[in-house]
Structures
1.
Amino acid sequence: MLEPIQGEAGVIIPPEGFLKQVADICKKNDVLFIADEIQTGLGRTGKLFACDHESVRPDIIVIGKALSGGFYPVSAALADEAILGLFTPGEHGSTFGGNPLGAAVARASLRVIREENLAERANQIGTYFMEQLAEIPSPHVKDVRGKGLLIGVELKPEAQGARRFCEALQERGILAKETHQHVIRFAPPLVIDKETVDWAFLII
């Protein structure tokens, strides 16, 4: 079980081919490959799922967050019938499982993601945003990395942590989160436009 991109660890992107090698090793050893796409899934990284960047199809994908478009707490586990079909009625349960309202909200959210091409939009706007961030002439910036609209700005140790920068950004109307103490993580809504990125960039 892994995150295709480690979000809380500082937006750590594995080397190209890593996910495919993991999938191959799992298949060879008859081990289920489970991808935690709660943070990276449903368009965030510029593809519907982050594993799609390497054309990898895990045995199980766990999703949440964007599944409701931010309106309702809902999550899901995705797998083929060969796996999920192993559960029979009464073997697995959940207090809030099978919630009709949650299912309706999730379906509506998925429809919007598809119809408004939000994954492609995240790819385009995210690439533009990262290019802008990479041009910041700051002695504090060590690295800018990400995929789509999941972006990390790693600071040098002498910057004394990312929290103070995130708090300063918040005072100016920009929400960002420090992660792994020295990385500023930007994960704006997938509907963000270029004009808003330009406005934010000047402040950043």
2.
Amino acid sequence: MSQGKLFVISAPSGTGKTTVLKRVMAELPGLSFSVSHTTRLPRPGEIDGKDYHFVSESEFQTMIDQGLFVEHAVVHGNFYGTSWRAIDQQCASGIDVILDIDVQGASILRRSPQVTASHIFISPPSIAELEKRLRGRGTEKEETIAVRLSNARIELQAINEYEYLVINDRLEETITVLSSIIVAERARAHRFPSGQPIGEIVTV
């Protein structure tokens, strides 16, 4: 069975990454979302085990001590981490895995000799547009928006570390570009756009 590929995707909070990923995964077969662990509280509508594995700080620390994480970092005051088990099982079954992590986690993975991945950064058109989107949520306090904008400026400095840069200005265009990247990477690995291996090509 063909080995699945890992796609590491980062974006500042409020860029629209979650919406883009849901659409891409609905349109392209053979994609799975890696469910990370976090110590933050669930947001309205989020489901434990589907959106994140929500755990306590003591549980998270135990997992760190046991070496169960590929990467882990503190983001906005909460712990986030990706387990080896989640990635290995999915990739081994031939499924391409979408890993949604911040620039800290992506940097750790990039330096790991055990991990091979394509790194994609989704950026807002501008900081002004990002602020507009954050305020449009209607769920963020003023101080939270200020922190997220400050962090976004720092995260945007890491753009050149990524192989691909996608500007989320127009949603449909962004979905097309991200889908095209995934399809191109599958072709590089001699796989169909669906993710299935092409196999042997007989020429006359």
